[in-house]
Amino acid sequence: MENKYKIEFASATTKQQFFNMFTKSKEGRALLKKKEDYMHKGQFIQAMQMAKKIDDFVAQEFAKYARQAEKEAERINVNELGMPNDVKNELNKLYVVAFMTADILESVILDMNDAVKKFDKDLAVDIFDDFKEVNKVAQEKLRFFRKSEDVMNLPIWGTECDNMYEMMRNKAAKIIKEDIKEKLKTL
User: Fold this and answer.
1) Can you give the three-state secondary structure of 106-137, one letter per residue?
2) Are residues 133 and 175 both part of a single domain?
């Protein structure tokens, strides 16, 4: 009989399924009704604030759920699977990439909001709010790896993530510059 292992960090419940459960709860329905009431009264700022409160609440509850599911899940140590070193090394490298990506994404969102606040302190970039929620869940899922792998506890993390972020900003600036050059050619 062939054994197949699937490495999971929480149950198959998705954030959307979790949100659907939330909307059926008494507290969820009350918060959603409050948001709808604000919308009907034309109080759009309050409605947006309530929507954010709902999103934050769902994200917090989902993170708690993911942590609990992680505690209850059976853990498989990749060293016990007899996995070849090249596969283990690739898996470790990809865990590190995932963590760096989550860290950089969080920095990007914070920097975007800092940039618009320089113009108007009441402005906020909310187009990526759903990414923030996904990022929180990703960081929760990566938390166990951080505890179990020495590489995740090295002080070089901050520097390397900052360097990668700066490199990506430079690449983005180069892409934008090239785009402008191409557009000027067509004028």
Assistant:
1) HHHHHHHHHHHHHHCCCCCCCCCHHHHHHHHH
2) yes
Q: Residue 1 is part of which domain span?
A: 1-76
Query: How far apart, in whole angstroms, are the C-alpha atoms of residue 181 and residue 65?
Result: 49
Residues 132 and 175 in one domain: yes
Euclidean distance between CA atoms 93 and 3, whole angstroms:
25
CA distance 105 to 135: 7
pTM (two decimals)? 0.53
The string of pLDDT tens digits covering residues 97-153 is: 888 888 888 888 889 989 999 988 888 888 777 777 777 777 776 666 655 555 556
Q: Are 32 and 54 in contact (CB under 8 A)?
A: yes
- The distance in angstroms from the start CA to the end CA of the chain is 67
- How far is it, in rounded angstroms, from Cα 84 to Cα 8? 20
Please say whether the dihedral angle defined by the alpha carbons of residues 135, 140, 142 and 143, taken in this order, is positive or negative: positive
- In 3-state terms, what secondary structure has residue 155? coil
